[in-house]
């Protein structure tokens, strides 16, 4: 009897349940039902505190289309993993290893993004058998061309821009749509192109507010009263980009706006004289049923994870490269961030189309 | 040859083009193509400044599903209508009457919400032949059970709550979804019920922050870590409701948060200790293609408006009462607001289900 | 302790779970959790065969958005209810009464359409305490302005017509979209108007194939190569309408086409020379998550049903009349069919717009 | 002044307008508005008969989200291209070349699928400057990993299966969903996996009806009353696969069912005793607004096509390989079909999950 634990960690996204179902159904098939699957609650927290349940085959039925994660999730910052809690004296890493043994696991399947993979790699280095899958709407996990959750979020963000389009054109207004993405801009880049935004501001390309204002003016001269700006949460001005990290943090902390979009709106109103509206879809972007693309990807990742377990190949993340499913060593994944290359074809195509990146 | 002008005024919503198409196609049928339709640009602004176009039959094809308004729209506050602009000496009312005559119109069709209908009634009283249709996502126009745009906005707001649900349950988090509606809460009431919100805060029912916090605590005791609050833009606390108008305005002006949801989040975090996230879908709620319900309603309103014109019955708004299309005198509509009755069945049912209104 | 049984019967539709949740949550609230709810499996079949489960409060969480019915459903023709099965000697009516008593029920909540209500009324007349709710995508239940499921199905059927529109215009083609509805045409009427169909064929208005072909020709003369026909499953020609019932049945049984749409396509191709494509969305129309409108309606119906049980008012169906929730005696509902009045405003408006009903 | 003609040919799909917009906007940018774009009507037909219009920049605004093709399309079988029409003596190839010259084109941009590319290559060999883009919901164009239209169709087909799921589980029924695809099964494979179908029948994998019936039986033994089969239009039995081409064609011509799904349903009913329902979404799958994935792909293809024109690199199709945009010689594309490899990872993963391919 094979024993496998599963946990989902970090911010949730679409497709987590599809991926859980993928690995579970494949495990039951691969091991001819000779497998016990344990659902570990709320990410690493459940592994630390021994909060888990033995799951039944039927628990994985009907969850393909379900948003969120049936296992629950929580954020457990990697840098706190090794820190011993003073009050409780809890050694989290030891606790996770102890619970892994207590559960008698042959393997731990971890679904998570960047932070999650640092801890996954650490647990692997600590001797646990780990197989992971890359989830995040940010598509910023190193070692895979695509993470699941990404295209579902792109669909939602695009729908928001689509709807803003009709009201923007009707009123001849300037709109900022704030798209999720603090460190990387894949989501905003794709949604911006798909939604037909006029300006796309990414964390990877610092913007010049004057250049942004020029777009409004140029469009107005061309008879277009409305402009739509797709702005990543992590959009950054050229001045900010030139700051030292500490200085930047202090500057942002002192910012009187809830997010950069509001600041940008105020600045643009001041420069251009246009009224600028802000829309913040927020967590809406990571909720609901996964799109078809993600469901297929999750199923493939899940089946691949089950095969790794069957073959006792541990310490890998399932990844997609050039359309093929690959196994990426966790050590290669951990601690890296897959940013948008500023000269990638998507950006070149967008510029060719006349879309401004504010630079 | 009958000559009819059409304008759309105020904030846009779904279904404007469907209603424009409805009246136009019906007019062409009713008058056997012996009708000229003039599209007046950007609401009353186009009538004031003589900005209009003769439209062709084909202009009304393919617009049934289109969001926004092909005529453009703008806000023209009623209280400014009679104010003569000092610089330009422009008498707006006179200008509108002059342009109406200059265009040789037999009738002016006006699509708008509450503000729009004050001006529509005034123009009717000034002698213009006016027929109007009630548009707004707020469903707050007096004299009709339903305005178009409402159910389309409910669909979107519900979708947002649906998606927030999956992330809220996965993380065990408290979420506020801010739904449009400054003065009336129909949209929030319907989206809140349809989305399965736990708390619904309406402008019509002042809330007690302690009562709201009690819901979180009670749900936690019942094993539910997450709570979803559907909060109207115009939600108001009991303390605020007790203020005099001037005092209230000053208090809100001094509020350090971009909207009431952010203040509520801060207060709830402070009282309950839960982290509270805010989502602001904003203008997304009024954009995009109208839902099927609205398309049928717009078509019926449009056909009814054409019949009124055919019968030379002017000074009416098309309305829906008990499923029937009626003609409501503009004088009955103007200046009134259809608020949510606090004892309406929808609220009773929601309370029966255990939904809290924070009171 | 109050004991309530719930069953869903007949063809499923969107909103069944929302209505189940509505009545269940309201019952728990009304009776302060002093209520036991029994889920009866697969409609009357479960009541006949004693197939039921005691449900827990948590069973009703998270099902608001879920399509289908968590209780299962089956068709049990009313005319067979009194027929004693020869092989098993099973007296179905007696069995249902026995199981009702065995379960110790105070009330039986029945969700169903026309056929279901005949049996519900019969059980009520047999002395069982029955409260019912009107479900069906057909909106043909007597005594209520609206059934739940209807608008969700309209949304889907409209989406199909929308998509067919883009391909029809691109190719200049004639398309038939077959919409559900064997006896009544509400669904097709609403979807046809909402989708902008050029021809709408209803069971209530027999068509003349020559008149339908005229529409194609007239549109072609007007420069429009494409035509979209929304055809109800129960569309009927004038010749057929003139037949005696027996003759008609024989004629249809001998029809070489899987449904009337295919026959119509063949006839139109022969008369007009146009290629005619047929699309049959079928059961797709009754699946998936209920729309916001239905969710609110289901919640109101559910709360109203709970109030009836609280007040021990049995023998009623919850209904919607003029926007108000009403209790309709089962005897008034059973055996009647709410057809589309051929002079209703929706049809008048559609004709005003130039839509043909083929008559 | 650069002169570029554009035409769309063959069955339409989502994204055609997005791709048209992509190449047009990029051309205006690349050539600093020194370009004239001619829209050729209804595919090759417009080129043959000289039916085209000079387009303006504004014609390409607002079409990103629009389904179908603003240029119209038609099917022009390649094998008829060289056939001289007896009545009219029309030499189609010569006519196309003549019109190309008459219009003074520098390049002809062709959007189409497999058939279209045979003609595109022929025109290129005849000396016209051709650049093409691969469109089709079938994803069967050789030389590119992905065609646009594919993922939009997958989304729709998946939605249909999703909805069928809720009704299938509620009734415990067997359903066949017929997915487009006569020769290749990509669409059905992806929708089947994404929709969670239990059986997927592809043109590439002949099925054994007994094996399919076994799935129903096995599921029933496992307590699952419902089964969903995703069946490609071109699904083929093992017996049929063993036939000679002529024999097969005769056999299909004699088939008494409108499509293979109906035959399969009848056979399954006969073998298994289950009632089997058939749903045929048909052209619905190729209509409506393109999904975000397709919009990005169309934009990239469009920009790439404009770059090819800028660089005067003719005789190429834009393609996607390993995430990169490439230029594929038309000669490599024409006449080939990209079938689903029976051992591809998607199929392996599906089998790992327990999905049957009926073989």
What are the defining features of this structure?
11 strands; homotetramer; Rossmann fold; 359 residues; seven-stranded mixed sheet
Structure characterization notes:
Chain A is of the alpha/beta class and 359 residues long. Chain A folds into two domains: 192 residues, Rossmann fold, CATH 3.40.50; 135 residues, Phosphofructokinase domain (Rossmann fold). The first copy, chain A, contains 13 helices and eleven strands. In chain A, strands 3-2-1-4-5-10-11 form a seven-stranded mixed sheet, sandwiched between helices. Chain A has a four-stranded parallel sheet with strand order 7-8-6-9, sandwiched between helices. In chain A, helix 1 links the parallel strand 1 and strand 2. In chain A, helix 1 packs parallel to helix 11, helix 5 packs across helix 6 and helix 7 packs across helix 10. The longest helix of chain A has 22 residues. The radius of gyration of chain A is 22 Å and the shape is elongated. Chain A starts with a strand and ends in a 7-residue tail after the last helix. The model of chain A has no long low-confidence stretch (mean pLDDT 96). At the A-D interface, helix 1, helix 5, helix 6, helix 11 and helix 13 of A face helix 1, helix 6, helix 7, helix 12 and helix 14 of D.
């Amino acid at each position: 009897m094979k024993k496998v634990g599963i946990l989902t960690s970090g911010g949730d996204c679409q497709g987590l349940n599809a991926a859980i179902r993928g690995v579970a159904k494949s495990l039951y098939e691969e091991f001819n039902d000779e497998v016990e699957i344990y659902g570990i609650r709320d990410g690493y927290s459940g592994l630390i505190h021994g909060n888990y349940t033995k799951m039944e085959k039927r628990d994985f039925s009907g969850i393909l289309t379900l948003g969120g994660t049936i296992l629950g999730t929580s954020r457990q910052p990697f840098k706190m993993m090794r820190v011993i809690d003073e009050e409780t004296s809890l050694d989290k890493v030891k606790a996770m290893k102890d619970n892994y043994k207590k559960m008698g696991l042959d393997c731990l399947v971890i679904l998570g993004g960047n932070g999650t993979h640092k801890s996954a790699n650490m647990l692997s280095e600590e001797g646990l058998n780990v197989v992971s899958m890359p989830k995040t709407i940010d598509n910023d996990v190193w070692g895979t061309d695509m993470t699941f959750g990404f295209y579902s979020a792109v669909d939602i963000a695009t729908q928001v821009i689509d709807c803003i389009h009709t009201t923007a054109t009707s009123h001849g207004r300037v709109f900022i749509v704030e798209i999720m993405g603090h460190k990387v801009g894949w989501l905003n880049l794709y949604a911006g192109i798909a939604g037909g935004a006029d300006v796309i501001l990414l964390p990877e390309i610092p913007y010049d507010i004057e250049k942004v204002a020029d777009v409004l003016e140029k469009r107005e001269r061309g008879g277009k009263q409305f402009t739509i700006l797709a702005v990543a949460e992590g959009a950054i001005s050229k001045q900010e980009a030139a700051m030292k990290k500490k200085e930047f943090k202090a500057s942002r902390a002192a910012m009187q706006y809830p997010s950069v979009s509001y600041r940008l709106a105020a600045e643009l109103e001041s420069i251009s004289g246009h009224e600028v509206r802000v829309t913040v879809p927020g967590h809406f972007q990571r909720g609901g049923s996964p799109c078809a693309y993600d469901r297929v990807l999750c199923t493939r990742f899940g089946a691949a994870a089950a095969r790794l377990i069957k073959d006792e190949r541990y310490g890998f993340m399932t990844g997609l490269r050039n359309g093929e499913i690959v196994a990426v060593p966790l050590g290669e994944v951990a601690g890296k961030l897959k940013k948008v290359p500023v000269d990638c074809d998507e950006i070149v195509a967008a510029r060719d189309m006349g879309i401004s990146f504010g630079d």
